Amino acid sequence: MSALVPLPVVVPLLGAALTLILTNRPRLQRLVSVIGLTTTLVVAVALLVQAYRHGPVVVQVGGWPAPVGIVLVADQLAALMLVVSSAVTLCVLLYSIGQGRGETGETAPVSIYHPTYLVLTAGVTNAFLAGDLFNLFVGFEILLAASFVLITLGGTETRIRTGSTYVVVSILSSMIFLAAVGLVYAATGTVNMAQLAGRLDALSPGVRLALQLTLLLAFGIKAAVFPVSAWLPDSYPTAPAPVTAVFAGLLTKVGVYAIIRTETLLFPGGQVSGLLMVVAGLTMVVGILGAAAQSDLKRIFSFTLVSHIGYMIFGVALSSVAGLAGAIFYVVHHITIQTTLFLVAGLVEARAGSTDLRRLGGLARIAPLLAVLFFVPAMNLAGIPPFSGFLGKLGLLQAGVAAGGTLPAVLVGAGALTSLLTLYAASRVWNIAFWRAPRLATARPAVRLPGLMVGATAALVLLGLALTLAAGPLFRVTVDAATDLRQRTPYVRAVLPVDVP
């Protein structure tokens, strides 16, 4: 099974090269992209089954053993992230094909879109599988380089301006990350995470804390954690709908994944739990207050994206198996639901010509299927029982109550308040855009939405419902993953020979 580990990275890269060669063959480009991402999804499912039954699956790239060589590791956490990210990227690709991204030169030239999208996918999967800090950095840079192209597709003034902000912030976070990697190597003589799990414990508390905070700052910017989250609501809404959707679903979650991985494997013990709890609470509350104040659908979803990152950080801050399991479950839930909502925003824009709430109305009567596609994930995001959003939040809040203490109690209250305000924001969108009388945008002649766009969005809605139906088995996987993360031993033993210190 170790031969399968590199495939989620290699297949999209080979697909990107092939689609670039097929510049003048758009149908073949689309076929190659779909086959490549479908293959990646199948491989990811196989790796998850293997990791769940037999432990982490490891491959030493080039035959060089760790800690000298590059190592790719598919443990339960990484494999689970691979499965959900592969499913989401495949659905978004189908949506973009339906939207005609490969046929409209102004918004997404075919010679650029498909290769870049596949490179982005390879960067995401490489980050999930990376077994050392430098390869994690490489994964970030691959996905960021591709995202720089995707976020400015079309070259309009607005996209270039907001894309410039995104590029500057991304480069800054990458510089901080690279500096942290250099500092870690200088202090320990290695960047292999399994080896660092032992060597960092030998450092003085001050040096160790400095390294931990530097990495947290770099990952916090990438994850859009308050107070370094202001760039996201200004950058994401201007990109094409499929690009915004995959950014919202995956890019910030790669940052969250990096926080989970490093805080459990490299810096266990919860030395900065108090700081993380404060940051988590502010992220939740400030983000959702921003959403409540917006009048554009994409900006509302952008602020809810920031807000709900706080739930995941809260789970990490608890430093318990229950907290980590809740955080992992919520990451899986949020990747699916947030991506779906941005695809729905694209459908609203295609049908009504605008996402400005002041120009929308009557969509429930004019486009009832579109209303259903919005309502289900919106209620899921708000945490209405029995959806997966409710189950994920319930698990996190129960873990907070079990932890005891003032800060966890405050975070439980902040989480409940954020959920109520999310329901308010979703209800406001429903009442204005879908329920009230038609306005300027929706009063225009009917526009037939491409079936592939609607079908891909519906598939993600069904995936969100499937997470609810399969919540029990999924929670068992997340609890096992969290237990392994807390123990660290399964990961370290799978990567390092017994005699390597």
TrEMBL record:
Keyword set includes Phosphoprotein: no
Domain of life (superkingdom): Bacteria
Domain NADH:quinone oxidoreductase/Mrp antiporter transmembrane per the UniProt entry, residue ranges: 130-416
Pfam families assigned to the protein according to its UniProt record, in alphabetical order: Proton_antipo_M
Membrane topology, from the record: Multi-pass membrane protein
Major place of residence: membrane
Subcellular compartments: Cell membrane; Membrane
Keyword Transmembrane helix: yes
Transmembrane segments: 6-24, 31-52, 77-98, 110-130, 136-154, 166-187, 207-232, 239-260, 272-293, 300-321, 327-348, 399-426, 447-471
Keyword terms, alphabetized: Cell membrane, Membrane, Transmembrane, Transmembrane helix
Similarity annotation: Belongs to the CPA3 antiporters (TC 2.A.63) subunit D family.
Name this protein carries in UniProt: Na+/H+ antiporter subunit D
Organism: Micromonospora fulviviridis
